[in-house]
Amino acid sequence: MANKTRRPEARPRFSLTERVMAWPRFGRMALVFLSVLALALALQTVVDEIYLRLFYTEGQSTASTWIVAFICLSMYMAGYVLIVGTPGAKPQIGRAQAGYIVTAFLVIAVSILWLIFRTLFAVLQ
After folding, report:
1. CA separation for the pair 44, 50 (Å, rounded)
2. Is 31 inside any structural domain?
3. Which of 19, 92, 93, 110 has a CA-to-CA distance to 53 between 20 and 30 Å?
4. How confident is the model at residue 109 (pLDDT cuts 50, 70, 90)?
C-alpha cells in the first residue's frame, strides 16, 4: 500500500472586517467611540482654521463647533448601525462595514500621527 501523506489543513484566513465583527459588542463600541473621538480632535482644528479665516463674523462664533458635531454624530450613528448593532443581533458583514472599519482605523492612525507631529513641532519651536 502506498503511504499517504497527510497535508496539513490550511487555516481559514479571515479578513479585517470578519475579525472586527467577531469582537464582542463592547469592543466594537470602543472602536466606534475611538474613531469618532479621533475624528473630532482632527476636525476641530481644521474646521476652526478654515472657518476663522474665511467665514467668521461675531454673530456666528459657534458655527464651526456645530459643523464638527454634525460630522462626528453622523459617523457615530453610522458606526452604531453598521458595526455595533442592537443587543442580541450581530450586523451582517458587507462592503459598508468594511468601508467603515477601514475608515475608522485610518482616522485613528492619522489622528495619532498628526498629534505626534503637532507635539514635535511645538517642542521644536
Report:
1. 10
2. yes
3. 110
4. very high
| Residue 68 domain-assigned (yes or no) | yes
Buried b (16+ CB within 10 A) or exposed e, 76-103: bebbbebbbeeeeeebeeeeebbebbee
Between residues 66 and 36, which one has the greater pLDDT? 36
50-99: pLDDT as tens digits: 877 887 777 776 778 888 899 999 999 999 999 998 888 778 889 999 99
Distance CA 64, CA 40 (A): 12
Range of the domain at 113: 25-54+62-124
